């Protein structure tokens, strides 16, 4: 075989919005030691006895609101990106899609890929900013499966690409649909992480000892907080949004020791200050999902409204955007 196999990986979503499927998804996801990074016994007790039993019924209700006749948006947008990338790459490449949690699973998809005897495999997680809980976990799972292969082909693993010009341009093009001058404030809301997870990036000191809000250095280039801020600087510069008109924030926290400021609190504060219209980008996600459509589109709209605001406008995720597909192509062939 002379072909190259490309493996796109996204986070994963339940098989259906039923409580049983959501429970099974949350259980696989939150039992991952890169996601809940505490000692084994504490994680088992916290996740299996507290978080999953209480969260599954509530999350299932939200997943029911999110679900469409095409299924979960995260999965169908990722499948669409896979199809378009395949068309763009042409015959020398086979593009596959796997999900870190649930289906299509990494072991199943890799087994299909093993049988194709590719000369080379490109592992391309759909997370522009590296986090151990997302990219790190996906790569670890690929390595776990591939280590038992007799033939391990040439392998290229892409760990992050937050500053890839085509990724930035794709979000800029999405953002240009809305004139930011018509909004009181712009929020760049990234998925949150426990602070201790960014601290673990460093050999010496903590994240707070580095100037992660302002610069990328050799020490912090894999710090998720630093790359979220760097992504924002690139986007804001291209969109001509002055520094005083935007805020970087972090959403979806599980407790108070997550990266701050929290997006819901920023939205609340904007309402209290008398702002009426907010524009929100969510650049850590490359496909619309529960965290964008429901958390930003519905829940933040409600919070803003309760505090005097009028409109929260979510900028659509990259989904099937041609410039995003061009970015994936460049990452795969480069
Ligand atoms: C940017 C990528 C992501 C990182 C980093 C990440 C870390 C992370 N997430 C949780 C807990 C939950 N996340 C949930 C949903 C979810 N998370 C991501 C991406 C990242 N998560 C996506 C794309 C989604 C949406 C999936 C979908 O089906 O649409 C959920 C489930 C929803 C809910 O019950 O609220 C949980 C739980 C942790 C703990 C964590 C890092 C420590
Ligand atoms: Fe998450
Ligand atoms: Fe940092």
Automatic annotation (TrEMBL):
Matching entries from SUPFAM superfamilies are given as: Chelatase
Instruction: Alphabetically list the UniProt keywords.
Output: Cytoplasm, Heme biosynthesis, Iron, Lyase, Metal-binding, Porphyrin biosynthesis
Superkingdom in the source lineage: Bacteria
This protein's GO CC annotations: cytoplasm
Q: Can you name this protein? A: Ferrochelatase
Q: Reaction catalysed? A: heme b + 2 H(+) = protoporphyrin IX + Fe(2+); Fe-coproporphyrin III + 2 H(+) = coproporphyrin III + Fe(2+)
Recorded hits in InterPro entries, A to Z, give: Ferrochelatase, Ferrochelatase_C, Ferrochelatase_N
Which HAMAP family does the record cross-reference, listed alphabetically?
A: Ferrochelatase (MF_00323)
Family that this chain belongs to: Belongs to the ferrochelatase family.
Role played: Catalyzes the ferrous insertion into protoporphyrin IX.
- Its main subcellular localisation, reduced to a broad class, is cytoplasm
Q: Which GO terms describe its biological process?
A: heme biosynthetic process
- The EC number on file is 4.98.1.1
In the UniProt record, the gene name given for this protein reads hemH
What GO molecular function terms would the record report? ferrochelatase activity; metal ion binding
For the ligand (Fe(2+)), the binding residues are 191, 291
Pfam families, from UniProt?
Ferrochelatase (PF00762)
Q: Which CDD domains does this chain map to? A: Ferrochelatase_C (cd00419), Ferrochelatase_N (cd03411)
Pathway listed for it? Porphyrin-containing compound metabolism; protoheme biosynthesis; protoheme from protoporphyrin-IX: step 1/1
UniProt-annotated location(s)? Cytoplasm
